[in-house]
Design a protein that fits this description.
two-stranded antiparallel sheet, 12 helices, mainly alpha
Length: 306
């Protein structure tokens, strides 16, 4: 049985009245009008759910001020912007290392050689994605290559991989045969002992990137695909007493994702100040409950975050 959606559109003033009826306090209506006009009721609803005692009837906790909702929204927005910069550095580094370390021993078009890959169906799927991305690419270096070397089916990896998404790069790496020495060498170059860690982490970070790119909410989010939990790294990592167990719900919280980003930045972009800016952001928003994102007590003093 399907239902007919029959809720009417509400004016900004009607939205404010409805929220007031549900328990929201407005100490600055002009600010509220600005955010409802430019961010939107529906997007903000994803943030004010954390201030509700009854999500079915949309009843808010006593004393909830609209300013608290805006503060949570602004924190989340700044966190996304911070992560976009960090993940871009990781993505560019991963694309470069994958191209460099596979092209020399095998071929500039190694990604099209099926014998290097584990699953034939995944190989075919990724190659189809590559064909489609190249066909619709408007990048000058791809168009120039086609013009000069039009008889080649594929440009070399250092050109082709530039038009692939982070998610496709993750699939490409994950499907390389595990007995290919370069696959493990790429993982070791990031301080990871096995290819499983790098594949899992890159997958998780690519999902994180997609959330950020589509302006999705990060704060207090539960992630369906957490990165594989590493107990010890060759670079500074989470100290054992602060590490979530594999069965703990904390493994699905944002903090573990942030830790993997910070860890890979040690080698992908040592000069990045992601760790410093994250600490500053949290200090600037003292009302944000970092415990609900899985942050361990004293996390900022760990070597990983120094």
């Amino acid at each position: 049985m399907t239902l007919t959606y029959n809720k009417p559109a509400l004016s900004i003033q009607q939205q404010i009245i409805l929220l007031q009826q549900r328990g929201v306090i407005f100490s600055d209506q002009s600010e509220a009008i600005h955010f409802l006009e430019n961010v939107g009721y529906y997007r903000l609803a994803g943030y004010w759910q954390d201030f509700q005692t009854d999500r079915i009837n949309h009843i808010f906790c006593t004393g909830t001020n609209f300013k608290q909702i805006i503060e949570l929204y602004n924190f989340d927005r700044e966190l996304r912007l911070l992560l976009i910069d960090a993940i871009e550095r990781i993505e560019v580094s991963f694309r470069c290392r994958l191209s460099n370390m596979m092209s020399i021993p095998y071929s500039p078009t190694w990604f099209a050689h099926s014998h290097l890959f584990h699953k034939e169906d995944l190989f075919d799927t990724v190659l189809e994605i590559i064909d489609n991305e190249l066909a619709r690419s408007g990048e000058k270096f791809i168009l120039h290559h086609d013009k000069i070397y039009g008889t080649d089916r594929y440009p070399p990896a250092w050109k082709t991989l530039e038009v692939l998404s982070f998610g496709t790069l993750s699939k490409l790496y994950g499907n390389i045969r595990n007995d290919i020495a370069e696959k493990k060498a790429i993982a070791k170059s990031y301080g990871l002992s096995t290819v499983e860690y790098l594949h899992s982490w890159i997958q998780a970070i690519s999902v994180l990137r997609n959330i950020c790119s589509h302006h999705g909410r990060l704060c207090y989010r539960i992630f369906g695909y957490p990165p594989k939990l590493m107990h010890k790294g060759s670079l500074p990592w989470i100290v054992r007493e602060n590490m979530p167990s594999s069965t703990s719900p904390h493994i699905q919280f944002l903090f573990l994702q942030l830790c993997t980003v910070r860890y890979i930045l040690h080698t992908a972009s040592p000069q990045a100040n992601f760790h410093t800016k994250l600490k500053e952001l949290i200090v600037n928003y003292p009302s944000i409950d970092v415990d609900k994102m899985g942050f361990s007590k004293g996390w900022e003093e760990e070597a990983l975050w120094k």
